[in-house]
Each structure stands twice: as structure tokens, then as C-alpha cells.
Amino acid sequence: MTSLQDRDTVIRLIGGYMVSDAIRAAVHLAVFTHLDTTPGMRLEELAARTRAPADHLDRVLNLLRYAGLIEQRESGLHNTRLGTVLVPGKPGSLAAFAENFTSPLFQRAWDHLETSTLTGEAGFDREYHQPVYDYLSQDTGANTLFNQAMQEEATATAESAAALISIGEDETVVDIGGGDGTFLTTVLQTAPTATGIVFDSPAGIAAAENVIARAGLTERCASIAGDFFAAIPPDGTTYIIKSVLQDWDDEHALALLSTCKEQIPDGARLIIIGNFLPDVYTDEAAVGYLTDVCMLVISGGRERTLADLTALLDRAGFNTAELRHQRLGPLTAVELGPRR
After folding, report:
1. What CATH number did the domain enclosing 43 receive?
2. Residue 274: CATH number of its domain
3. What is the pLDDT of residues 71-103, one digit of tens each?
4. Are residues 80 and 178 in the same domain?
5. Does residue 21 fall inside a structural domain?
6. Residue 264 and residue 323 in contact, taking contact as beta carbons nearer than 8 Å
7. What is the DSSP pairing of strand 269-274 with strand 331-336?
8. 69 vs 306: CA distance, rounded Å
9. pLDDT, tens digit (0-9, with 9 covering 90-100), for 282-320
10. CB neighbours of 117 closer than 8 A, spacing ≥ 6?
11. How far separated are the first and last CA of the chain, in Å rounded?
12. I need a labelling partner for 152 at 20 to 30 A (CA). Which of 3, 83, 267, 281 fits?
């Protein structure tokens, strides 16, 4: 007979979406922000701040306590270390990331996980009858939130990723699929004579000019809109693809890499940066397995092992015998072309 403890464990797993929804509600109600600005707040005061009845709010707070995001001390309610990660504007915040990926827009795509598993069709495509990036290009609000979520992710990894590469004097760095420029501006801060180009779709670079300006790099960095499956800027010395290939299935990933092989100038190099899955399952790669299935549902993409990437590079015509790998924490940089 199944033990009650095992049943409780499975019930907690089934209820995972309830915790996600509680996080989204708490972010919307600014629970984590209120507890950050006023630690030790009493339930009644927090209820007044959020305009939620204290009884209802307390029931949601119980889920957040269970999730390890807030705690009750003698002095009152406090964010835990994990809860602080959900305070908007804090270094390392995932508030927009949480709001984006728990939103009804994306949750409805997950309703089609079974179909995605059987067919490989993105659940988002099935729900909305168009790919996610086409949808975002038409919905300014959704695109803004998505870009904010991507900026949080890019900010969290930018310094570590930048440390994986060395940029020489007077280089031109092209960040393919570079979004709002968060990563490229970090790279250029380490190379005071280099210039850069953020290259992405019009929706992808919507906030890039502001990010570049805030970094004080308007004289050295530009943003260019285009379709990286068709063409990439021609004048770079280093081309970077960071956390982009995972968004696409093998057919599209191969198309992007083939464009790079055909159009990257002689003497330039290509660097691919990402969180690659291990060849054999390990619990330590849990976040990678989560994002892998997320890619299946949202865009039809996938996380890959280094062997998977090497196979795609071979098919695109690159000389993979000259691949160079460098790893820092969960990130790995794969470099092809002249070493500088």
C-alpha cells in the first residue's frame, strides 16, 4: 500500500502550479516589495497595503511560507532570502521573469503539453495559431514584459558570460539575437576600445537604445533590426550567440548556424554561449530540464548537449575539430575561428 507520506509528496508535486500562481499573485500585489521596504509588517497592515481581505491574504501567504519565500517571525512577516529575489528592481531579481512565465498567456500554452510531447508542435502555436515571437511582435504589453524577463535573465548571467570571452582592441562584436543589449553592453565595459552591434528582431531590440544609453555606450554600440535566419551584419570580428539556439528547433537552429557559416567574414570568430545539458541525467541539471520542456511548449525549441551542438555545427559546415570550450559555473562558451 502507498504510504501517506508518498501520497503527500505526490500531491505537493501536483500542486506545483498553485505555488506558481501564488507567486504571480504576490508579485502583482507587491507583497515582496512591501515586505522589503517594511520588514516585520503585520498581516493586517500588509492586507491594507495590498487591499486584500486579511483572511484571504493569509491563506495565500501560507503557500508562500510553504514555498520558503516568506517567513513569520516574532517581529512580523519577512521575505526570506529566496523571497528577496522576487522584489522588482533588486539586483538578481526575477520578478518580471515570474510574472511573464506564470501569466495566463504562457500558461494556456502549457495546456497543450501532451500534444507537444506527441507531435513536437509548440503548445503556444496550437493555442494562439502563430509562433510566440510573431505574437509578441503584435502585442506591445506582452512583448514589454517578455523583454523585461529576458533582461533579468541576461543581467544575472552577463558578468559570468562576459568573463568567458576576451575581446581585443578595436574589435567589433556582433551579438546575434542580443535582445535589449544587456549582455553586449556588459562585454563592451570590459573592452574600452571595442565597438558593438546588437542584432535582433524589431520586437527583440525594442528597449536596446535605452539600455545602451544608460550604459553610456551610444558612441560605441548600435542596435540593428533584422532576420538572423536570412542575414547578419557583415563587419564583425567576433560574433556571439548567447542563449538563442535553445529557442529554436533543429531546423531553425541549423538555418541560423548556416547563415553564420556563409556570412561571417574570413578571420572572424563565432562564440556560442549557453547552459548545455549533460550527456547523462543528473539532478544538478534540474533547471536545464525545466527550460528544455518550456522551450518545447513555448517555441518548439530545446536545450542541447554539447554533442547536440557539435552535430548541428557539423551540418552547418563548420570545422568542429577546432572547437574550443571554456566553462564558468553553469555557462559554457564554444568558440570557432581564429583565437585572439
Report:
1. 1.10.10.10
2. 3.40.50.150
3. 999 999 999 999 999 999 998 899 999 999 999
4. no
5. yes
6. no
7. antiparallel
8. 34
9. 999 999 999 999 999 999 999 999 999 999 999 999 999
10. 296
11. 64
12. 281
